[in-house]
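Appendix C. Worked example: Diguanylate cyclase (GGDEF)-like protein
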Amino acid sequence: TSKGAGRGCFHIFEPGMTMETSHRSTIELELMTALNEDQFEVHYQPIVAIGEGRISGYEALVRWNHPKRGFITPDKFIPAAEETGFIVELDRWVLKQACRQMAGKDDRTTVSVNISAIGLLRQDLPDFIRATLNETGLSADRLEIEITETNKVEGKEAITILTAIRAMGVGIALDDFGTGFASLSYLIDLPVTRIKLDRRFISGVAESTRCLNIVLSTVSLARGLDISVTAEGVEYKEQLDLLRAAGCGSVQGYLLGRPQASFTEQYLGSSAA
Ligand code: C2E
Ligand code: MG
Ligand code: MG
Ligand code: MG
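Step 2, the predicted output written as structure tokens:
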């Protein structure tokens, strides 16, 4: 079979693994054990409001602090977590953790939590979010959920669920904007409050007129819809300057700060934003 077979039990990290894989139960068991044994950790990456030059919020990003392998990034285990359905439990754990930690922070910053499309189809998600807000004492307007464009979020059920979540005052961000297949129709059907412009457009913004024009158009589109735009993956000062000139509301990326185990007050490039 695969070359990983000789190196121990970590079949879970094989890309392209599917439901049909015979190791499916091993994966699920391993992920569940990790959750029970507190091996997951939430890291936070600052989101900086351009112009104000302050941190407006943080994105919660899960990491697996594996006893033998150290920190494992989400791209290595989210696909397996989605295939097994374990992602629903993991996302809720992250959400609760993020709300609890943000509630203890005495300011107006927000926390953004990624929710897999699979979890958006669970009818009790709005109730879970409401209960979590009550339990942690975080006000709804300090929470935002991030969803990505997939065919699963355009269904009627998902729209109903997202509408209920938005009605509580929780923000809804469309993540990786521009890389999906139905971006614009989502803006009609879903109660979106923010667009997160994918890193792909930002990485090319200084070199490519096409990328710059996509940024400018997205900013203008968002303005017309009265929603915000956050640029993802900002790594260079030159990109930040172009984004500021384009009228982009906020930025996130290694230039401003990497994901860290706690909320960081300082960020790189603070003098720049
Ligand atoms: P995302 O939601 O688009 O998160 C942004 C990703 O870009 C993060 O990767 C972040 O570390 C990375 N990033 C931030 N700034 C820069 C930059 O300047 N340059 C580059 N090259 N990368 C940057 P990460 O943490 O590895 O997460 C990858 C993806 O995994 C996330 O993409 C998200 O889709 C998913 N993910 C992470 N945590 C969760 C979670 O708790 N639940 C679910 N369902 N998905 C999650
Ligand atoms: Mg995200
Ligand atoms: Mg993204
Ligand atoms: Mg992404």
